[in-house]
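Can anyone check this?
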Amino acid sequence: MRKINHKTKTSTILLILLLTISAMLVISPSVIAQQIQTKKTYSYIGAVPNPVGVNQEVLLHIGMTDALSSVEMGWEGLTVTVEDPEGIVTTLGPYRTDATGGTGDIFIPTKIGTYTLTTHFPEQTNVVTPFFIGEPYECTFQASVSDPLEIEVMQDQVQYYPGHSLPSDYWTRPIDGQLREWKEISGSWLVPSSLMGVSVYPAWIAPYNDGPETAHILWTNPMTSGGLAGGETGEHGFESGDAYEGKWGGSIIVSGRLYYKLGGSRGLTPVEYHCVDLHTGEELWSKVFLDNASISFGQLLYWDGFNNHGVFDYLYVSSGGNWYVYDAYSGDWRFTIENIPSGTTLRGPNGELYIVQVNQAQGWMGLWNATDLCLSQAVGSNRGSWGNSVHMKTFDAATTPSAWTVNVTIPTNLPGSVRTAFFEDKVIGSQNSLTEVTLWGLSLEPGKEGDLLFNETWNADAEWVSGNVTMMGMSGGWVALAPDVGVIGVKETVSFYGFSFETGEYLWGPTESQYYLDQFFGDGRFIAYGRFYSTGVSGIVYCYNATTGELLWSYPADDKYSEILWANNWWTEPMFVTDGKLYIGHAEHSPIDPKPRGAPFLCLDAYTGDVIWRADGLLRQTHWGGLAIIGDSIITGMDTYDQRLYGLGKGPSDVTVEKISTAVTKGTAVTIQGTVMDISPGTEDASLKLRFPKGVPAVSDASMSDWMLYVYKQFECPEDVTGVDVALEIITPSGNYQQLDRTTSDVYGNWAFGWCPEETGTYMIIATFEGSNAYYASTETTYLTVSAPMATSEVDLSSLEEGQSNLEDSISNQMTYILAILVIVIVALLVAIYSLLKKQK
């Protein structure tokens, strides 16, 4: 093994040296070649896959063997001739290569047979810069034609990597990079919930999650003293951190890690952040950033440069006009950007951070690129490496004008102010008054930046003036903004108006007034899935068509026990939408104590309003501390009833089946039995171990909400708890597979099934819990040996009957002899008695 390793290392070193020498030779012609003013070239063409199926994509590699001296350069005008199986010739291109001399294209063959492809490089002159010594010089690179490449096209499709299914077991980070399909369930939450609103669209929308469909709890962590204080304090609980002193604010999720702070409200110090594994609840580290500063947002930056590629995860702390950037994994400082320009922060498709700034008075609009700033100051390039190029450095945004990638004039004196912006789409501004709404848009589309898209004025309803109404929300009356539509709310009438962000025109409104209590809360509204959602103090969730204003459905979060003093419904706030589901919770500005009991946490179908699940009293939200958030398909949030942190999601299960050590006889009934348990991280807590020494049973989805209250909050055990189904299968001694039957576990997690085996030998018994919306599946096996019955002797019935007849004859004869003897004896006695009597006379 040591020799093999030694050879491997030696080979690796030699390979690196060869590649290094090759790179040096490719980068520049040799010193000898500096004197040559013309150079022969060698074109090439490659194809992957080859052979290939008809109508399948083929990746072509097109180019010539000489590299260029700068990454911005490339060879021009290359073409590829294609001769198909019928002899028809077509031309692809022209192409421009990158600095290595090559480029790529997609080719789709449509006929079965042999295609012939050839690259043609046209003569051209370029500047050659020697790598070692010498001055740059011009060189003419001669035209060349590659060797022809044959592509074999078959009827059958070639197989590509089949991909991977989504997980069927409980999963954790890191996710192997080959499991690309898991991107759909592994989203992050990069903007703190306490900062959410119209200015950070689409922060309400949380894609790339499998939205939990039950209230199943994975783990809990205490945050501070919480719950009922008890004793001499009576019914009162510990302070929950609402009313401007939220304990949960500023929380984000980056790559399966939750970051939340304690102690940072209203000047209280220190502001200590905790980093927690979202899947296990384990705390990984804690620290104080700067001088008790808060995390402003997170970033996942995909860097695709010519030297390195990959995602960098960061935490951003904004303080004093600067961005301090920290590694999300360790919490260590990575770099700083000083003098951040004002404006609206946007994210590019790869997570890049931009700021759009609009100066309406001077007629100017600019787009600032933080990524370009860092690279230009670090290495003088914006296409190289990231990582080591920018880490451990400080950059000044005020000294690099080139970071403003857009710098255009716009119409002057556009009214009002910027309301929102959408990357590479548009900037929206408005001015609202009681008499009119003026709406304007500027293009951010590449190549059209600064173009005026629209500048429209709508005359407001007369009631706005007569009623001296007030606009809702914190952005000039806009309560919800999306790329295609925006919604204005009127406080007194609790009604809404829709406007097109494509044309600036009025679309609809006013809607019919919502319940009057909704006038007291203007932040619980957003747009997703083409729908406008609105809820608030009324406790009624309203869903409108965002394009027409039509009311599609409504849902009242009713208070079953009249704990709320001002309404029949709970004050509700939307937390997020994901996976076609809308998650709603109860929160209140400054709740009295004792807090009203039974606050709902619920999941609605975002399209129909149907209840998917509801848990009353499980997870009461905090208005000032921030609502629950989601990442990696796990909901996490603070419960103000007990001041604990909760993680909700689909958890692991464990089905067991008892070992059957004693063989049974064929035809004898046997009991197969076992358990189904919830083995989520929270069940390992010491307090649960004391209450459930044999483990926490798994229960049905229908029982989950009340069961979680019992398990994690010590409520009474529900009376109608049902277990989960267990499927039983067997493999017989002769090797046949059979589905045996199904059974259901009880409230203690136990299950049993009676069965009579019909074949001798050893059976494999398979017990499977197939999973549910709350649990992943689990399986276990056991074995049963079945023996034959005890052997018994056969009886000859005819002999038995003959023997019985002989016995009866023998008994009959013996009785005759006995009777004869008795008669003789009796006669003799009578004679003797007679003789005796006669003598006496």
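Reply from J.R.: I decoded it. The CA atoms of residues 115 and 496 lie 62 Å apart.
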